[in-house]
Amino acid sequence: MRVMVIVKATKNSEAGVMPSETLLTEMGKYNEELVKAGIMLAGDGLHPSVMGKRIQFAGSKRSVVDGPFAETKELVSGYWVWQVRSMEEAVEWARRCPDPMPGEDAELEIRPIFEAADFGKEFTPELRAREERLRSELERRKNKA
Q1: In whole angstroms, what separates CA 15 from the centre of its chain?
Q2: How many CB atoms lie within 10 A of CB 9?
Q3: Three-state SS at 63
Q4: pLDDT exceeding 70 applies to what percent of the chain?
Q5: 3-state per-residue secondary structure call for 82-125
Q6: pTM above 0.85, yes or no
Q7: pLDDT band at 113 (very low <50, low <70, confident <90, very high)
């Protein structure tokens, strides 16, 4: 199963406080462990929400809202995408994570990523084929980069 591990934002991450060399070193070692174990598929840190935008939908109407966004506890400051055997394995790996926000309360959230089978009969063979073509194209582009 694939999961997204979400690093929740904090006051400092939203203020743009950059991680220390020590934390960068610890996270680098942790990421190496994840890669060597075949767990990590992707991962990155995100700039504070002041640099972001939200697109709000109301029927056919779209509006753009500039950051920063309120409610720091609801924001994301980074993420990983992992391939694991179970949610329990994801929790085991998450428990081994260095404290992502030293000096502040920090939180990781683990969420399963939908797989094709999760969508049932509404995900028709035609839609599945289109999805597979798109994923193949993304993989080709990634390999060229």
Answers
A1: 20
A2: 24
A3: strand
A4: 100
A5: EECCCHHHHHHHHHCCCCCCCCCCCCEEEEECCCHHHHHHHCCH
A6: yes
A7: very high
The two three-digit tokens of residue 140, written as one number: 């080709």
Q: In what order do the strands lie in the sheet with 76-83?
A: 40-45, 76-83, 2-8, 108-112
| C-alpha–C-alpha distance, residues 47 and 145, integer Å | 23
Structure token digits, residue 4: 């997204």
Ramachandran area for residue 34 (φ above 0: left; ψ -120 to 50: alpha; else beta): alpha
Q: How far apart are CA 100 and CA 108, in angstroms?
A: 9
* Torsion of the alpha carbons at 41, 28, 9 and 44, rounded to the nearest 10: -40
Place of tokens 């502040």: 104
